[in-house]
Amino acid sequence: MITALTLTDFRSYASATLRVGAGPVVLHGPNGAGKTNLLEALSLFTPGRGLRGATAVEMGRREPGEAGGRAWAVALTLDGGDGDEIKLGTGVQSAGAARRIVRIDGETAPPGRLLDYLRPVWATPEQDRLFSDARAERLKFFDRLVFAADPAHAATVSAYEKALRERLRLLTDGAEGREADPLWLDALELRLAESGARAAMARASALEALQAGIDARGDRPFPQADLGLSGEAEGLAVSGADEAAIAAVIREGMVRSRGRDAAAGRSLYGPHRSDLTALHREKNRPAAEGSSGEQKALVLNLILAQIVRLKSEGGASPVLLLDEAPAHLDANRRAALFDEIVALNLQAFMTGTEAALFEDLQGRARFVRVEGGALLAEA
Ligand SMILES: Nc1ncnc2c1ncn2[C@@H]1O[C@H](COP(=O)(O)OP(=O)(O)OP(=O)(O)O)[C@@H](O)[C@H]1O
After folding, report:
1. Which GO terms describe its molecular function (predicted)?
2. pLDDT, tens digit, 9 for 90 and up, residues 41-65
3. pLDDT tens digits, one per residue of 190-203
4. What domain count does the chain have?
5. Domain range holding 100?
6. How far apart, in whole angstroms, are the C-alpha atoms of residue 276 and residue 141?
7. For ligand 1, what atom is nearest to the CA of residue 324?
8. What's 254's domain CATH number?
9. Residue 220 gets which letter from DSSP?
């Protein structure tokens, strides 16, 4: 359980500490007060770029007129039970450093280790058009759902992406007349086939678990989605093919696509081009055609199914980060969301401009007013 969040030169905060206990936290305050910045800080306690998809450089505090961000740090104190206190930290040591480092109890650790302590899951206003927006964002969203339950998936995807970049560099060098080393190309494609097949298997099994979670939530006032994965490798994984067979298909596809990729300067084939598809079940229409309110409700239902799944599978606690979610929900769904968060005994951090949107949570949540970089606990 998180007991404190401390920010140093992070975004609009010079220095601030948010102390919390079990249960939901409501962060309310005017536009630009720094509410989302707090959620972003919490979202950094999992591998990746956090809920804004921002770079480490953007996160450093900048005073007006300062060109670059400062060195910054975000720290979390966790109560590990039995009086155990765990300190997680992330940040950059010098202004302009591109890579944030992660520390666990003072020791530098690979970001994937964070998943042993905490599993943040978030919904932001950007996801209001998740199903109609760019495919790459949707796949990233889905991959985060996958690796929260299967930490190895984060490393698999990043190994795949690294090999993909190297292969493209080789191919485009080749297109410019320099000879691509065929042995190196083969080795990279083998790596791509292996990691791609592993990623596809992990995605297919997460899809199955999430769909089961969604189906089990039929009695909730949220719309249901029928999920699917497009992509040759995922299609094979869903239909039960084994990892070696999928790897062989990916490898062949990579070899076939060499010329096209070199000419286009992009990698046109492979599981990085797969997509999460969703059908709005009651309407029997693609989720992409839905209004932003409908898409948001589908995403929230998916996220709640994910949280229930993570809780039931054991492991580190899920933490829910909801940026301006209540504003998009009608009163009925809002009340159901709050009741569910309380019933699940979740640590949830929710933002909104008005405390009144969270009235149903009075007495059941900690309310914190955020104003100009200051945090004022109320109850
Ligand atoms: N690197 C930075 N250095 C200093 N200030 C920053 C930095 N990045 C963002 N900010 C400031 O943080 C503020 C935005 O904070 P945030 O997005 O958390 O607001 P919010 O309370 O969520 O607002 P809204 O209700 O509009 O969503 C802006 O005033 C912005 O200028």
Report:
1. ATP binding; single-stranded DNA binding
2. 999 999 989 999 999 999 999 988 8
3. 999 999 999 999 99
4. 2
5. 1-117+316-379
6. 9
7. 27
8. 1.20.1050.90
9. S
Q: How confident is the model at residue 140 (pLDDT cuts 50, 70, 90)?
A: very high
N residues, the chain: 379
Q: d(Cα 97, Cα 351) in Å, to the nearest integer?
A: 29
328 — pLDDT class (breaks 50, 70, 90)? confident
Which H helix or E strand runs over 40?
Answer: helix 35-43
Gap from CA of 365 to ligand 1 centroid (Å) = 24
Q: Residue 75: pLDDT band by 50, 70, 90 thresholds?
A: very high
165 with 286, same domain: the answer is: yes
Tokens 């054991």 correspond to: 314
Dist. CA 38 → ligand 1 center (Å): 10
- If asked whether residues 236 and 307 sit together in one domain, one would say yes
pLDDT at 379: 54
- Residues 331, 290 share a domain: no
202 lies in the same domain as 70: no
Q: Give the mutation target among 11, 52, 63 for probing the ligand 1 site: most ligand atoms within 8 A of CB.
A: 11
Q: Which residues, judged by CB distance below 6 Å to any ligand atom, belong to the binding site of ligand 1? A: 11-12, 29, 31-37, 60-62, 69, 351, 353
Q: What is the C-alpha separation between 367 and 75, in angstroms, rounded?
A: 21
**Pair (197, 65) in one structural domain:** no
The answer to whether residue 123 sits within a structural domain is: no
> Could you identify the atom of ligand 1 that is nearest to the CA of residue 27?
21
Q: How many angstroms separate the CA atoms of 49 and 283, rounded?
A: 34
Residue that is last in its domain, among 256, 280, 313:
313
